[in-house]
Amino acid sequence: xxxxxxxxxxxxxxxxxxxxxxxxxxxxxxxxxxxxxxxxxxxxxxxxxxxxxxxxxxxxxxxxxxxxxxxxxxxxxxxxxxxxxxxxxxxxxxxxxxxxxxxxxxxxxxxxxxxxxxxxxxxxxxxxxxxxxxxxxxxxxxxxxxxxxxxxxxxxxxxxxxxxxxxxxxxxxxxxxxxxxxxxxxxxxxxxxxxxxxxxxxxxxxxxxxxxxxxxxxxxxxxxxxxxxxxxxxxxxxxxxxxxxxxxxxxxxxxxxxxxxxxxxxxxxxxx
Length: 272
Hints:
This protein has a single domain (2-270), classed as Rossmann fold (3-Layer(aba) Sandwich), CATH 3.40.50. It is 42% helix and 18% strand. It contains 14 helices and ten strands. It has helices at 41-44, 48-51, 75-88, 102-113, 133-137, 141-145, 147-150, 155-169, 176-187, 191-198, 205-208, 229-237, 253-256, 258-270; strands at 2-7, 13-20, 26-30, 53-57, 95-99, 120-124, 129-130, 202-203, 215-220, 242-246. Helix 12 links the parallel strand 9 (215-220) and strand 10. The two termini are 26 Å apart.
């Protein structure tokens, strides 16, 4: 694997990791809040690498990307980050695959830069709204129950919230080594980053209704963070989207059933 830094919105340095077939269609992976590119380990180190150019970025504030204090509310900055990665790496019509919060970021990109440079969109247990009753309605009581700890600046509360988040996202339970790695990159994200990301107020319904590029919606039936019914709402807003239900998968469907997830993603890419 190769990694590099790209200058994103406001000059923030965005860490990017690349592997796979340099001549294949690019897939750009965008992780969720408090995660990093390692989230996609079971994709980056899979058979997908034989056919596709696999690229995973650390969102601003995460992983090895810069972590400025006040740079998380402006939609343009998030859009510029994705645009910079596409341009700098010369990604030819990539599929943007975003998990959880990730679709909010690629919809920021589409809002400011349009659909012309991308091949398709892949939502994985994704949300499209923030800062409203409608946004809260798609989140599970289990996740809402840890929200105050998740956003806390108190060390013990933060660790407690992040430990529970890992448990809610991943099943079967990761090994001790995997769990400590996951907790490590979660804890490395400063609380002000999570607070900034969840202080945004967003409603992408207007944008979803205008999307014309192919869309794949992947939803785990055992998702303990985003209610599975959210996928039906997104499908109704984007009638042309394909809905891939994974009945036994959790929030991290790409982890709990990596083989099934990767196969469906490959089929989607082959259809473009």
